[in-house]
């Protein structure tokens, strides 16, 4: 930072452990940084693509902790976090599937924190670039931040290498960025839906899973969505049929799952890029269904 | 003054019967109550908070507002654990100054929101126990409200209530400002005076039903002329 350079400010390392988790191109950071208050005190030569610094609280039985060999990418496991007195945003239904017309990605828009609906209009599908969207489920803050980090890394790769990273490589990159957090309470389950030389659908999860497939549904409402999808999903669906199938699947899941609800976001990805369909409230679907005569 | 309450239920003490030996662990968090609210209009934004600071059954202060002025066009409201609120606002002030000195301009509301998100997430494994709401004017002069969860997930809203009475106030705001759950109602755009009156009414209701909200109300109205602060007394019981 300019002010720090002008003052020739050099920070002394403190005993608090501060691990930095970096991505591409950054080999071992030799010493834990000491930016305790997150003031971004980095000297100019250290600005080598570290996306985020995390503060890890020192464990109560810290003797064993200090003697551990310092591996820079490994946060300490087993209950390293402090007991939190609040709930985080969780609970969702997202789905994605491939058909002859491209890829469909759909999700509900409810963010719940414990029993409260923290936000009724969250966007769980985020575009990464013109031919790739990612649907997120798990903890809201984790997904939001990791999507931001992924967008940044993809853009940097494109600028450095002159071509866009393939979707399979993007999934592998994301998986390796999440790997240091395996075993912590971070919960991120993303589905990459995109097009490069053909439709692609890859599921990446903070437990380490990375799976390519034709249909995925993730979240607390996913069993209900799978039930609807498995019945009618075919390769030869038309675009209108596929969109209404995705919407129906999310609607049924919101009907049965308490933690999913509100609106349905829908993205359609083709060779030309992604198109978003206008959000419609699930109340519209509900009214349409109520009008149908019931066969008992 | 160490409080020995269990922080799963803020303010509730365990019943007076023997449940077996209990190990008490030191918790680094405390819950100090308070409610914050923000509303965005066409060319204004309002951030309001009560001024009661409580812990368990005690009131520490009746004059501890939870609105913090960040720039001429942005106000931050934070409720939750007061210690973390103070540290967080100090860090944000420092980062604002650093930005100003490096880039020779003030941070915009959207930029402050994005920065706060990364500050909160950097403490993902030992979070700041703070519920933040930022209210201000965006680059075009329109009102903007950004609401956060304690670990940094955020989004832009038109209105948001946070803190102890948030579950009571949010449905009321959905109805009155968002015109939700009402049939055949004309969507009248919100004027500044109507919004201020609504905020006062809403806090009076919150003080009636929530024990952690009360004493006084501090309203900050942000327009392009600047920030105007107003203090209104509330129930003190």
TrEMBL record, chain A:
Annotated active site: 92 (nucleophile)
InterPro entries listed in its UniProt record: Ntn_hydrolases_N (IPR029055), Pept_T1A_subB (IPR000243), Proteasome_bsu_CS (IPR016050), Proteasome_sua/b (IPR001353), Proteasome_suB-type (IPR023333)
Keywords associated with the record: Cytoplasm, Hydrolase, Nucleus, Protease, Proteasome, Threonine protease
PROSITE patterns membership: PROTEASOME_BETA_1, PROTEASOME_BETA_2
Localization in the cell: Cytoplasm; Nucleus
Any Gene Ontology biological process: proteolysis involved in protein catabolic process
Record's keyword annotation contains Nucleus: yes
A single MF term (Gene Ontology): threonine-type endopeptidase activity
Alphabetical list of PANTHER family matching this protein: METALLOPROTEASE TLDD, PROTEASOME SUBUNIT BETA
Known role: Component of the proteasome, a multicatalytic proteinase complex which is characterized by its ability to cleave peptides with Arg, Phe, Tyr, Leu, and Glu adjacent to the leaving group at neutral or slightly basic pH. The proteasome has an ATP-dependent proteolytic activity. The proteasome is a multicatalytic proteinase complex which is characterized by its ability to cleave peptides with Arg, Phe, Tyr, Leu, and Glu adjacent to the leaving group at neutral or slightly basic pH. The proteasome has an ATP-dependent proteolytic activity. This subunit is involved in antigen processing to generate class I binding peptides.
Protein name in the entry: Proteasome subunit beta
Organism: Neolamprologus brichardi (Fairy cichlid)
UniProtKB/TrEMBL annotation, chain B:
Pfam families named in the record: Proteasome (PF00227)
Main subcellular location: cytoplasm
Subcellular location per the Swiss-Prot or TrEMBL entry: Cytoplasm; Nucleus
GO cellular component: cytoplasm; nucleus; proteasome core complex
One record GO biological process: proteolysis involved in protein catabolic process
CDD domains attached to this UniProt entry: proteasome_beta_type_1 (cd03757)
Keyword annotations from UniProtKB, A to Z: Cytoplasm, Nucleus, Proteasome
Source taxon at top rank: Eukaryota
Annotated function: Component of the proteasome, a multicatalytic proteinase complex which is characterized by its ability to cleave peptides with Arg, Phe, Tyr, Leu, and Glu adjacent to the leaving group at neutral or slightly basic pH. The proteasome has an ATP-dependent proteolytic activity.
Subunit (UniProt): Component of the proteasome complex.
Family the entry assigns: Belongs to the peptidase T1B family.
Record-given protein name: Proteasome subunit beta
Source organism of the structure: Neolamprologus brichardi (Fairy cichlid)
